[in-house]
Every structure is written in C-alpha cells, then in structure tokens.
Amino acid sequence: MSRLPFYLIVGLLMVLGIGTSLHRHIQMEVPWTPGEQRQIWEVEAIVDFSALGDPVRVDLALPSHQRGYRILTENTASPGYGLSFLQDERSRRAQWSIRSATGSQQLYYSVRLQVTEDRRQQQMVRPPLREISWERPYDTAAAQVIERAWMRSADPYTFTRELIRDFSEDRQGENARLLLTQFERTPLLVRLLNQAGVHAREVSGLMLEDGRRRQSLTSWIMVFEDEQNWTLFNPRTADQGQPDNLLLWEAGGRAVLEVQGGTNSRVTFSMLSRNQPAAAAVRSQLVDDTLLNFSIHSLPLEEQALFQTILLIPIGALVVVFLRIIVGIKTSGTFMPVLIALAFIQTTLPTGMIGFLLIVAVGLVIRNYLSYLNLLLVARVSAVIITVIAIISLFSVLSYRVGLNAGLTITFFPMIILAWTIERMSILWEEEGPKEVLIQGGGSLITAVLAYLAMNNPWIRHITFNFLGVQLIIMSLILLLGNYTGYRLLELRRFKPVTED
Q: 430 Cβ partners below 8 Å, 6+ apart?
C-alpha cells in the first residue's frame, strides 16, 4: 500500500502549523519567547472650547494603524455627550454631540499605541489636483517660484525639496517673501505643488516625546510620486521621510478639530512612554479572532487558564510517544505519565514524586490484601478508588498538622488513574513478579518527570498557548513517530555480545 497519502497528510499538517504560527508572529507580532518587552505610548487629547448654550457638535480627527504604530485601546471621557466613531477611506473621526451646553467644556480622548517593527507604507488615497487661482501680483510671483524650482528638479520629490528650500531663510527671494506675507507657509507650499501638477496635501502629525504635556500638532506635506507611493516633507527644513517618533494624527487633508456651537476651541496633547510585556501588549488585538488569527484570548480568563494547561497535554503525549517508540521505556498505562506530569505541575516536582510513591506503595499493600477476598473486578477497582481517596485525605490532613502546606496539593493527583495504576501493577506483580513492576513503575515515573520538565518549561507554555498552529506540528511529529518500526534504543543492548566478538 502506498505511503504517499500518509506523508502528504503529515506534510500538510506541518505546513499549516508552521504557516499559522508565522502569521501570528509576523502579522500580529506575538513574540516567540516569554518576557519580551514592547514600547507603549499613551497619548491623551484634550479638547477645550466655550459653549454658547446652543446644540454642540465636535469633530476630532483620530489616528489609525500606521507604519511603526498599532492602536491597542481607545477611551473617551465626555459626560453628558453622545459619542460616535466615524470612518471612511480617508480618515477616522470622533464626533461628540449634545443638545445644549453652556460655558467652558472639556472633552477627553486617550489612545494606547504599540511601537511595532512594521515599516510597510500605509496606503493613502491620492488627492486630486486643485484648480489654483491667484490675485495679482501673487500670480506672477507664484509662477516664477515654481519655474525656478522646476528647473533644478527631476521628479515630484526633488521638486518639492527645492521648492521648500526656496522659502528658507538663506535662499528666500523677493517672490517667496511676497507670498509669505499673504499666505501661511504649509498651505502655500501645497498650493504651489498643485499648480505645478504635483499631488500633495497638508497633514498633521504629533511628535512623540516622553513626558511632554500640552503639545500641539505639527504640519507636514504629503507628496505623491504616483497613486501608491508617497513621502512626507518637513515644510520648514525640507527633510524628506517620516521620523520614527512622528505619529500621523490626521492624514486625510481635513481639519483636525471642528466645533459647532462653541468658540475658542483648541486641542492639546500629552504623552507618556512605558514598556510592557509583549504578550499583554498584543492581548487586546488577539481578542478579535479571525480564521487565520484563531486564539484562546477571546475566551474568558477562567477558560483561558484552563486551556493553558490543556494545551500542554500534546507536549506530554509527544514525550511519551518518543520514549516508548524510539527509546523503548515501558510504562504502566499508555498516557498515565502525562496525567501524573500534570499533577506534578500543580504540586511541584519533589512534593509530587513523594506523594505519588507514597500513594502507590500504600495502595499496593492494601490491594494485596483485597486480592485474598476474591472480589470481582468492578468491586475490587471501586474499593481501590475509595482507598486512594482515603490515602490522599489522610496524607493531606497529616501534612497540614505538621505544618507542611505543600502536602495539601497532593489532592491534584488523578484518583481514578492512580487506582487503575495500582490495580495494573498488582496484577503485574502476580503474573510477572516484582522486577517487572519496578521496570514499568520506574519507567512511568521517569516518563512523567521528563514530561513534566517539558510541559513546565516557560517557553513551551508560552508557545503552546499563543500559537495554536504548534498543535498541528506536534500532531505531524507524532504521526511520523508512529510510522517507525525499527529497533528501540534499549533493545540495542541485545547486540552487545556481537560487537564484543
């Protein structure tokens, strides 16, 4: 029979597991290792204005996901106001409204932003060229300024750079000075660029500096080379490119703040930077799962804690499969060591090993007495289960009385599994002798300890909980191990006399 379908299934599971894990790491920036830190910016915008006693509507531009920054959470404080978030292809805005307000008003908007490594350029809609008209003599001055910069440029970017430099202090000519007496610098530069056939718009950005208060937005010029490629220019220095600490607050060419029903409006910004564990920083964005972003983070915290333990079981299963198929260690029960390893996680390894050995040893003594009663299997196993419960209760009370609180955690042992383990070892003792009991019991304990060490590793706990694609990778590895039909490592000792000869 062809093994091709088997290897295709294994390969598909491996590719899907690796692909989904890489997607979560690259797209959602979930870290590979626990304890990684991410820089978080907390920015607060305060809108101040004086209401006139009429209906009030306030529109404030909001930032969006962009190169180098991802929005984690947003909050507002606006007692008595209605609030809506509006979004179109050009910008995002918050709109407050109230039927009547009088006197000084303050509205608050705060956002938490994560600094990311994503340097992909944000997609922007290229603005259309505007029809530009000037009064005399500004039309002549504008034409001469454009012609001078045009002759020293080769493309929209170099033209923009030369045009801005012509308005600097050291290169400012009479035409530039004339235009600056009538127009503000940034809107003037945008008008000149549009007249020259260059698509451009004025945008507003916030320079992020830790601990700054009452900051204002700065104006920048967004110049488009074609429909997809664009760059920013500083309208005063002609520096090209977006600084790393610049957050584009309004990039659609609209007003940052619009207030109807009020006067003396302004918006100021305060900001604070701090570091936060990467897992906590991205947790809020993992709540909104999609098919490719499937995670446990959308569940309540109680269920998340439960699944954090459940998702470790495949790791223990992989350890058991490897030790039994490749190494050849014998265990009492197939996956009993995995459940014992889960108990070790709750009790700590030393306490768990002592408790396991005590329960099994005492249980074997009592089970040996029950064998003389010639009970049926169901009744005998039920009696063993009750015995195990009694032993665990007795050990817990005794450990508490002598001040060993760690002994209380012995209740995490799976009682049914322990009862069946005692039953199997007792039968094995009667059929094979104590040597085989020691071999399988010792193998079970060694396997449980190794599974515990693998499952309790902080890196493995982090990977299994945050990257569910790892479960598919583990499945493919188990299938490959299940296809192995060669010698176990412990069986190779049979060939030792051959090597000696």
A: 371
Pairing of strands 262-277, 37-52: antiparallel
Of all residues in the chain, the percent with pLDDT exceeding 90 is: 22
Cβ neighbours of residue 494 closer than 8 Å, sequence gap 6 or more: none
CB atoms within 10 A of CB 374: 7
What's the farthest any 2 CA atoms get from each other in the chain?
118
Q: Measure the CA dihedral 479/480/484/488, to 10°.
A: -100
Strand arrangement, sheet containing 262-277: 69-77, 102-115, 37-52, 262-277
Inter-residue contact 348 to 409 (CB < 8 Å): yes
| CA separation, residue 121 to residues 157, 218, 234, 242, 261 (Å) | 16, 20, 18, 10, 38
* CA nearest to 387, candidates 423, 357, 351: 423
Q: 312-364: per-residue pLDDT in tens? A: 889 988 999 998 888 888 887 777 788 888 888 877 788 778 878 888 888 88
Q: Are 10 and 479 in contact (CB under 8 A)?
A: yes
The span from the CA of 329 to the CA of 332, in Å, is 10
How does DSSP classify residue 125?
A: P
Q: Are the C-beta atoms of residues 201 and 222 closer than 8 Å to each other?
A: yes
pLDDT at 409 over 70: no
Helix 336-347 to helix 313-321 angle (10° resolution) is: 130
CB 223, CB 235: distance < 8 Å: no
Tens of pLDDT, residues 262-293: 999 999 999 998 887 666 656 555 555 454 44
Q: Is the peptide bond before 79 cis (omega within 30 degrees of 0)?
A: no
Compute the distance between CA of residue 275 and CA of residue 270 in angstroms, rounded to an integer.
Answer: 17
Residues 342, 346, 348: CA angle, nearest 5 degrees: 100
Token pair 């530039």 is found at 176
Backbone φ/ψ region at 29: left (φ over 0), alpha (ψ -120 to 50), beta: left
Closest CA to 124 of 200, 228, 238: 228
Token look-up 């817990």 returns 396
Nearest partner of 127 among 20, 251, 310, judged by Cα: 251
Cβ–Cβ contacts within 10 Å for residue 497, how many? Answer: 8
Contact 253, 202 (CB under 8 A): yes
Compute and round to an integer the Cα radius of gyration of the chain: 35
Scan for tokens 């820089």, then name that residue. Answer: 39
pLDDT digits (tens, 9 = 90+) for 89-129: 778 899 999 999 898 999 999 999 888 877 777 788 888 88
